[in-house]
Amino acid sequence: MLSLLRFLRPLVVLAWLGVLLGTAQAADAARPNVLFIAIDDLRDWVGFLGHNPQTKTPNLDRLARMGMTFTRSYCAAPVCNPSRTALMSGLRPFTTGVYDNGNDWRPVISEDKPLTSAFRKAGYYVCGSGKIYHEAYARPSEWDDYLKNEGGMPKVPAGQSDGVGGIKFAPLDCKDEDLNDWRITSYGIDQLGRKRDQPLFLAVGLHKPHMPWNVPKKYYDLFPLATIQLPPYLENDLDDLPPAALRMAHPATDHEPMLKSGRWKEAIQGYLAAIAYTDMNIGRLLDAFEKSAYKDNTIICLWSDHGWHLGEKHHWRKFTLWEEATRQPTIWVVPGVTKPGAVCDRTVDLMSVYPTLTDLCGIPTPSHVEGRSIRALLTNPQAPWDLPAMTTFRFGNHTVRTEDWRYIHYENGDEELYQEAKDPNEWTNLAAKPEYAAQLAKLRSLLPAKNHADIGGRRGQGAEEGEANTGVKGGKRKKAN
Ligand SMILES: [Ca+2]
To answer: In the chain, N or C terminus with fewer CB closer than 10 Å?
Structure first.
């Protein structure tokens, strides 16, 4: 009897191994695919957020209805390169020292760290197109296949206005297909038409509505000038700001020339037109997705790298720590988890994307990743949540956003405090009022304990948005604190 058991035991073990392996294979086959969509410079002017009723985004709204949107979603940095680097690496700007467009992240973030590497290691086919990272710093080894942004963009004809100073907008006499985003989207459509044995991680990175807002004229025609509304604007809004905040606003760079030109509404028309063009490409991608074999077993995650000012706080572009530059649209569609049309009001930031995707796909989240998975919120948008959103702009400047408050702390110690429910435009800075001292102390305690020094880099290389336009000199080097 004993010898029979001895004989049987290895067989039992083998049988169990077979069961385990079989389960592992089944789990692998059931692994969800990922459609990862990045949009450049799209602020909260999307229909589903209801913030600006002028905007026309039927396809983004259609995607929003498929899953969950976040009303309080914020970037990790209000600048392309550090925002994308933080999301893709799982490491915040104050951890890596990647603060601006001139900081080449590749020497400080090893190839095993990024999100795409985690998915490749887990057996996914990882491919993408367009702008996922700031394109000056590509690292092809992180992808199985990648379509770079190539080819020229149609130019504004000579003699025609191309905008006001650095704010570039003009309707073009060209076709949808003439802009790079068309090809970038087509790459995604093509990938969705292919069958694979491996699960798919497909990234599509659209350039618009980044400037120049040069899109076919028909998109401008959607927004007749006579109907354009200016954003909420307070003449003396800057009067209660500390010096560091005034340097962020720097109205002389863009806003004063815009007022002088009398073309504020035309500029808004340009941004809305560029958003509408982007929405058209999202529609093409969604049409292809819904006809594809990926329709029912794919997680969709759509995000924009940060927001944009169009004159609020007398400022244009991103590069600030206020609501306009930090808030961004985020949509999650997770089969079996999110409910169609769900809305979550909790504060999240883009550091959550990496750990949420690995969590949902059953991939171990690497230990270096700083964000927290929002699976609990995707399951139940009212779930308890104590994590505020945080955004960093250059060395030592941070904002903490809770559901009720925005607190801003600048490197020189200057502060701002806004009570969002009463003051959604952040017009009244409460930081100097003694009755908010306890609130300030609480929010201060959420700031990072350490700030990595700016890693430096070639200013001017890949810094086209960051230099002369920001009013804050980017070359300043600071020692870590
Ligand atoms: Ca103010």
So the answer is: N
Q: Which domain holds residue 100?
A: 31-444
pTM of the model: 0.91
Distance 418 CA to ligand 1 centre (A): 9
- Which H/E stretch holds residue 188? helix 180-192
Judge whether 351 and 84 are in contact, CB under 8 Å.
Answer: no
Give the chain's domain count.
Answer: 1
Ligand 1: centre distance to CA 417 (Å): 10
Distance 322 CA to ligand 1 centre (A): 11
Element (H, E) at 353: helix 353-360
CA distance 209 to 76: 19
Q: Does 367 fall in a domain?
A: yes
Neighbours of ion ligand 1 (CB under 5 A): 237, 240, 427
Catalytic annotation, residues: 80, 134
Angle ∠(52,54,60) on CA atoms, nearest 5: 75
Model pLDDT for residues 79-88, shown as the tens digit of each residue: 999 999 999 9
Q: How far is the CA of 234 from the centre of ligand 1 (A)?
A: 8
Mean pLDDT for all residues in the chain: 91
Cα–Cα separations (whole angstroms), residue 425 to 313, 401, 422: 9, 14, 9
pLDDT at 461 over 60: no
C-alpha triplet 177, 178, 180: angle, nearest 5° = 90
The confidence band for 6, taking pLDDT boundaries of 50, 70 and 90, is low
Question: What residues contact 50, with CB distance under 8 A and at least 6 apart?
Answer: none
Mind listing the pLDDT tens digit for each residue in 368-377? Answer: 999 999 999 9
